[in-house]
Amino acid sequence: MEAALTMTEDGSDEPLSSEIRALLGHYPSFEHIMGDDGLAVVQGDLEILADGRFIDTFSIRIELLPPYPEVVPKVYETAGKIPRIADRHINPDGSACLFVPDARWKHWPVGRSLVEFVSSPVYYFFLSQAFFELEGKWLFGERPHGDDGVIDYYKEELGLEKLDHVYQCIELATIPSITQSKLRAPCVCGSNMPLESCHSSQIDRIANSVPYQRLLEVMGMIRRQQ
Question: What is the spatial distance between Cα 20 and Cα 41, in angstroms, rounded to a whole number?
């Protein structure tokens, strides 16, 4: 994003980045303001529709944390419609839990625009909240909270249930280059198929999308549950 996302005292832009301009054009009810410590903030009303039918409106605040876009913006519901509890997927700091950090590459990879951020993970978070209010269940299902939710994500990505199999796949994702002999050996999932014909592609995808240090943290989470 362009460097100076600040505003002068009279409310003019110095300058308003192309990303924020595009977002304001896409969502006319949004406005760009200066937050605490000069933080770039966009806030306004997000209208939720389903099949063209109005469902609800949520007042939201989006904080663009530096360094953007490497750091996912924080999103808050500001009118008090959503209880500030984990069971409603609200983080301890009051921000929306849009997805587990490890799933960012699926929901909003680096390189996607701010408009895509709001129109995809943000919009679907609030659509799901509106659906829960109407039906008492989550439109897209839900993950457990905390470490359990992170591990659940990797189980789903790998198509595995046993923690030791998940652990071994993630461990392989931390290796810079897997040897040919390892690729030809039976997969760690216990299928007896060669790794290269079984979980190699999923391991590569994880290795290329999740930082090394984060993978070590996830391995620690799994070890604590074994």
Answer: 9
Q: List the domain boundaries for the chain.
A: 18-135, 146-225
3-state secondary structure of 73: coil
Instruction: Give one word for 47, left, alpha or beta, with left for phi > 0 and alpha for psi -120 to 50.
Output: beta
Calpha distance 58→61 (Å, rounded): 10
- Token couple for 177: 């280059």
pTM of the predicted protein model: 0.85
| Spatial contact of 33 and 39, defined as CB atoms under 8 Å apart | no
Looking at residue 6, the DSSP 8-state letter turns out to be -
For the stretch 175-219, pLDDT in tens is: 988 888 889 999 999 999 999 999 999 999 999 999 999 999 999
User: At residue 216, what are phi and psi to the nearest 5 degrees?
Assistant: -65, -40
Q: How many other β-carbons are positioned within 10 Å of the β-carbon of residue 95?
A: 17
Protein fold of 18-135: Ubiquitin Conjugating Enzyme (3.10.110)
